[in-house]
Amino acid sequence: MLDHLSHIPLLSGAPAPVLDDLARESRLRNLARGEILFTQGDPALAVHFVLSGRVRLIQHTTSGQDVTIGVFALHEPVGLLVALEEATYPGTCEALDQSTVISISAAAIVRAMTQYPPFMLKVIKILHARLMEANDRIRELSAERVERRLARAVLRLANKVGVKEETHGVSRIRIDMPLSRQSLAELTGTTLHTVSRILSDWQRAGLIDAGREQLVIVRPHELVLIAEELTQP
User: Fold this and answer.
1) Taking the alpha carbons of 73, 94, 177, 190 in that order, is the dihedral positive or negative?
2) Which residues span the domain enclosing 152?
3) Beta-carbon count within 10 A of 50 CB
4) Strand ranges in the chain using DSSP code E only, listed in sequence order
């Protein structure tokens, strides 16, 4: 456990006694694609760090629609805020592909923050960044065109899990995770039909290369222009 914990940036520099305490209250879990780590409404008793693969947080609405709240990749914590509040998980966490997660009890995380203040500061910075991202998404959903929201969502995923590729001397960015059009619809708060239409338009224009569950950005700069509304759609 100590080896896994020492590679998590949020815990880098933590004293050995702190890491030892965290290791005692940690467990590894291997998830197959589609397997559930925790369910919406479960008591948030642990913070989960992604060691490999990717997971997503889905919120089930009263209307029966699933909304993807976020995607989490290597070393990112899942359920950090609610575990600290002793609340319940606001969504269901599902593995997007074969993944490994280390789960640390919330009580051990709180002790580590008390014993090692630099760790507490890192946690505050992460929570601040996620609050700013949530504010951005609320603004996008309430005031921005769907195409712009979709461009921003695709670029955020590219920034998080994108892999640069060279094809015939042209740089492309492959989003390195299974990505369905339904998932993009959930991320942007729109319909599958609308996402399919926009992606088809982008593909015809040569901006992207979209498969069944994969997406390659062929012309990233033009997608940025759409995201920032610096060009006509």
Assistant:
1) negative
2) 145-227
3) 22
4) 26-31, 36-38, 46-52, 55-60, 66-72, 77-78, 92-95, 99-105, 162-167, 170-175, 208-210, 215-217
| pTM of the full structure | 0.75
34 and 68 belong to one structural domain: yes
- Residue 75 belongs to a domain: yes
Instruction: Report how many domains make up the chain.
Output: 2
| pLDDT tens digits along 103-137 | 999 999 999 999 999 999 999 999 988 888 877 77
User: Pairing between strand 215-217 and 99-105?
Assistant: unpaired
At residue 9's C-alpha, the angle toward residues 133 and 173, to 5°, is: 60
Residue 233 lies in a domain: no
Q: Please enumerate, as own/partner, the contacts of 204-212 that have beta carbons within 8 Å and a separation of 24 or more.
A: 208/154, 209/172, 212/180
Q: Residue 66 pairs with which residues in a beta bridge?
A: 60
Residue 232 located in a structural domain: no
On whether both 111 and 54 belong to a single domain, the answer is yes
Q: Which residues contact 189 (CB under 8 A, 6 or more apart)?
A: 67, 141, 149
